[in-house]
Amino acid sequence: MSINFSKALGIHEQALGFRAQRAEVLANNIANADTPHFKARDLDFASVLASQADRQGSGPVSLARTNGQHISADGVELADPALRFRNPHHAAIDQNTVDLQVEQSMYTENAVQFQASFTLLNKKFKGLMMALRGE
């Protein structure tokens, strides 16, 4: 009898990957807090969830040419649909949209959510191990 890890672990694996990716984006924002014209970015969880559902259901997104003069997009990777520019509360004089306090609080919140996802995933693995041992 084989174990299907996708069914056993559920969405926790993807959630952990999303949290790690979001931590990178938020850390990049913090690192560029003093860079002129830098625009703060963030990942949208709802977009990631929708793209995961699309991948499991209908496959990759294809582009249609509605005019003969359109450039073919074969082999072109689409940008990450979840990566969005953040609407700033106020932009700095140098047009930087990073608010350091907001970024730090979001990074901390993301770290707590990462830890929660990791704990849930760890408990799933412990449950699988107990089932394999027959406990």
From TrEMBL:
Record InterPro entries: Flag_bb_rod_N (IPR001444), Flagellar_basal_body_rod_CS (IPR019776), FlgB (IPR006300)
Top-level taxon of origin: Bacteria
Annotated ranges, domain Flagellar basal body rod protein N-terminal: 12-39
UniProt main location, coarse: other
Pfam families in the record: Flg_bb_rod
Keywords: Bacterial flagellum, Cell projection, Cilium, Flagellum
PANTHER family with a match to the protein in the record: FLAGELLAR BASAL BODY ROD PROTEIN FLGB (PTHR30435:SF12), FLAGELLAR PROTEIN (PTHR30435)
Family affiliation: Belongs to the flagella basal body rod proteins family.
Quaternary assembly: The basal body constitutes a major portion of the flagellar organelle and consists of a number of rings mounted on a central rod.
Biological function: Structural component of flagellum, the bacterial motility apparatus. Part of the rod structure of flagellar basal body.
Name of this chain's protein: Flagellar basal body rod protein FlgB
Source organism of the structure: Thiopseudomonas acetoxidans
Species classification: Bacteria, Pseudomonadati, Pseudomonadota, Gammaproteobacteria, Pseudomonadales
Gene: flgB
